[in-house]
Design a protein that fits this description.
Blueprint: H1 2-30, H2 35-46, H3 49-60, H4 64-89, E1 92-93, H5 96-116, H6 119-122, H7 132-153, H8 158-162, H9 172-203, H10 208-220, H11 222-233, H12 237-262, H13 272-291, E2 296-297, H14 299-318
Antiparallel strand pairs: 1-2
Helix pairs in contact: 1-2, 1-9, 1-11, 2-12, 3-4, 3-12, 4-10, 4-11, 4-12, 4-13, 4-14, 5-7, 5-12, 5-13, 7-12, 9-10, 11-12
Length: 320
């Protein structure tokens, strides 16, 4: 039965991603909003819902390592695997706004994550934890990021290019149904997929540590993966890029911020090396934007991203 539910979850994820991409693009054109902004806000936040649900539940149960580990693993997976696969399907061009503001903001978010979870290293406390005050600070930074992104989009000339593709729209109510239905299918499908994968893994004797490191991060990132792949196939790269940047920032500022505001988080066995890996992925993305004149995440870079993830997982699992 678990295998049937696993397949059903994947079908819901793919169908939801398709509806979400279509509905979001319609809304972007109708309201003259760039597809990147739609990706950062509606899709980026919406596809972070599985991480939000898991992390809040973990916080309420006092499992701070699961809450923090889910965000850390998801952010690494998002950049190295999802953007890697997306770039292989369709290279991702970077706008000047991406290079000057969005990607640097992602790097900043990763550094802040390291600082607030390294109390022992900084000598501030005998244990690592994220307090309610720090949680509220993270949530405030999330509000600032969203407001800044929307404000700057009004000055971004690329929005005009995004919205001149077609003058034909679906009815407004149908577009909203596509977006809301797509998000619901993504979240429910991702949850169904994750629960089924966990049951199958436990049945066959795979350790809880391996499940947490691989399936939990990968499972809650399935909505992002499906949404980005569909966006790449539909040749909407800014929708995919906005999704990942928005999702990663949402994971740190919104997911951890909300979770810590509800109950202080104690990351437990989360290692500094894992936190540094989150920063490395953000820096890699920034480096890709700066080193090459084309401002493009190419297919070659996509392959490199996937290879780095494979090496990271191999090192991680070998130390268990």
């Amino acid at each position: 039965m678990d295998f049937v539910l696993l397949i059903a979850g994947l079908i819901l994820i793919l169908a939801g991603a398709n509806f979400l991409a279509d509905g979001s693009s319609d809304l972007a054109r109708r309201f003259k909003i760039s597809e990147f902004i739609i990706g950062v806000t509606i899709i980026g936040i919406g596809t972070s819902a599985p991480e939000l649900v898991v992390s809040i539940g973990a916080a309420l149960k006092g499992s701070g390592d699961i809450a923090a580990g889910n965000v850390i693993g998801s952010n690494i997976f998002n950049v190295l695997v999802i953007l890697g696969i997306t770039a292989i399907i369709y290279p991702l061009p970077l706008s000047s706004n991406n290079v000057k503001k969005d990607i640097p903001f992602g790097v900043l978010a990763s550094i802040i994550l390291l600082l607030i979870t390294s109390d022992r290293l900084l000598g501030d406390s005998e244990i690592n934890w994220i307090s309610r005050t720090e949680g509220l600070l993270l949530f405030s930074l999330f509000i600032i990021f969203i407001a800044s992104t929307i404000f700057s989009s009004k000055k971004d000339n690329s929005s005009a290019e995004d919205n001149t593709q077609s003058s034909r729209h679906r009815p407004l109510w149908l577009s909203f149904i596509f977006v809301s239905g797509g998000l619901a299918a993504l979240v429910y499908g991702g949850d169904l997929f994750l629960d089924s994968a966990l049951n199958i893994s436990r049945r066959y004797g795979i350790s809880e540590a391996v499940i947490a490191i691989t399936l939990m991060a990968g499972g809650t990132s399935m909505p992002e993966l499906a949404s980005c792949v569909v966006s790449a196939i539909k040749k909407k790269p800014q929708l995919a890029l906005g999704n990942i940047l928005g999702s990663n920032i949402s994971n740190i500022f919104l997911v951890l911020g909300t979770s810590a505001s509800i109950s202080p988080l104690y990351p437990g066995d989360i290692k500094i090396s894992d936190l540094l890996m989150v920063i490395l992925t953000s820096v890699l993305l920034f480096t890709s934007a700066l080193l090459f004149k084309k401002r493009l995440i190419s297919r070659t870079e996509g392959i490199i991203f996937l290879a780095i993830y494979g090496i990271y997982i191999w090192i991680l699992l070998s130390n268990i």
